Amino acid sequence: MANKSSISNPYSLYQLCNGIERLINQRLGDQLFWIVTDLSKVNHHNRGHTYVELVELENEQIKAKVRATLWRSVRAELEQTLGSDFYHVFKDGNKVLLQVKVNFHAVHGLSFDIRGLDLNYLLGDIEKRKAATIKQLTEEGLIQKNKSSILPKHLQRFVVIGAKDSNGYQDFYVSIKQNKWKFAFDFNVWNTLVQGEGAVDQISYRLDALQAFKNDLDAIIILRGGGSKLDLEPFNHIDLCKSICNSAIPILTGVGHEDDVSVADVCAYAQFKTPTAVAEFILNRSFELEKEAIHYGETIGREARSLYLKTESDLNLNTERIQSLAKEITGYARHLISMGVKNIQTYHEKLKNQYANQLALHVSNLKNLSLQKLQVKEPAKLDLTAVQIKDFARLSIQKEKHKMEIRHKSVQLLDPDLLLEKGFAIVSDNHGIIKKTSRLKAGDTVKIKIYEYELICEVLKVDEKWILNLTKKLQKN
């Protein structure tokens, strides 16, 4: 015998679901609700609708989940309002404030129709995420890391990361290439996505790859043309910002937004509002360096001219002093030579007279002796003896005259001008010419007369053999 259920009149599934649908329609009707939710599994259908799952997470666990649809008509209105930001808003992971209508269908179950969006809530959430990213980078000691790198005064070699066909890059290119100063730069562009899906991965990859050229590059420049605030989202991503912070090469950003600063801007060595502003910074830096170089060149030229004139003046002054002293020394030396010649001539005459007197005396004595001791018959022998005596006297006089000539030539060889011309020098101090008996000590000043010059020197050391070690220095006064 079959068992019978004790439950009478149960509902069918359809009856229950249909009852829920009628209850919801009666109680809620067309009432709209604002809800905060995360977006997941966003699907932009080619028929113009967008399908999405609305989820709420708690500790990474799903607390609630409902299917939602953005029908084509409502989507068209939002696209018109948001423009290109529409796809930045409706993407996985965004937390948004949506206006929804609750639906229930016996087959499809519970779902929401999306009727509106509060964009300010999303922007506020973006700012919160930016603040959290900056805080994390600061706590990890990365936020100022790229700013501590060294940026040369003249940026000669750099790489641009950006979309090559974008207006932003074209503005930068024209500004650099057609600058009025004709500065030349060595750079190229690595064509890259700078917004939308894949931008974070591409920019981060190129930044990391360029580190292999850190010794060859002066800077890396990240450029992006104009766009909305939501277009900046890739530049707030933690992974991209870490790549910027860890770069050993200085990074300049020009992401083309006048009113907002991305986290990438905060991390970079320097940030600029537009690509054109980056180009102006590079050109102005080179111009200032050129001005500085010209200034230093002019300063060096003035100093060189001043030094030349002073040196020329000192040289003329010292030349006059040397010539004056040379005249004094030469005049004194000529006086000594003249006195020596006179003394030699006097001595020569004295010797001549002395030998003549002695000869006459000898001849007289010999004659007297001859008259006394020789016979008259020997006059021829006497005359021969007289001749021999005269020859002896003549030879003696010639011999002494030859000696005098040699002495005269020796005195001439002592002419200071001749000695100086041969490389000798005359050393004197305040007491006159330094002789064997002179005593010098370290710190004394001496004058050294050499051919055509006079050196004013200071004695550094006097060794045991009285060899002078001198420091040559022209007298300044």
What does this structure look like?
The chain is an alpha/beta fold and 477 residues long. The chain has four domains: 13-127, Nucleic acid-binding proteins (OB fold (Dihydrolipoamide Acetyltransferase, E2P)); 140-273, Rossmann fold (3-Layer(aba) Sandwich), CATH 3.40.50; 295-412; 425-472, no CATH class. It is built from eleven helices and 15 strands. The chain has helices spanning 13-27, 72-82, 86-89, 119-139, 167-177, 199-210, 238-245, 263-267, 275-373, 379-413, 416-421, and strands spanning 32-44, 50-58, 61-70, 95-105, 109-118, 157-162, 186-191, 219-223, 251-254, 270-272, 426-429, 432-433, 445-450, 453-462, 468-472. The strands form three sheets. Strands 1-2-3-5-4 form a five-stranded mixed barrel. Strands 7-6-8-9-10 form a five-stranded parallel beta sheet, with helices on both faces. A five-stranded antiparallel beta sheet has the order 12-11-13-14-15. Strand 2 (50-58) and strand 3 (61-70) form a beta hairpin. Helix 6 runs parallel beside helix 7 and helix 9 (275-373) runs antiparallel to helix 10. The termini are far apart. Mean pLDDT is 82; it is low at 370-379 and 466-477.
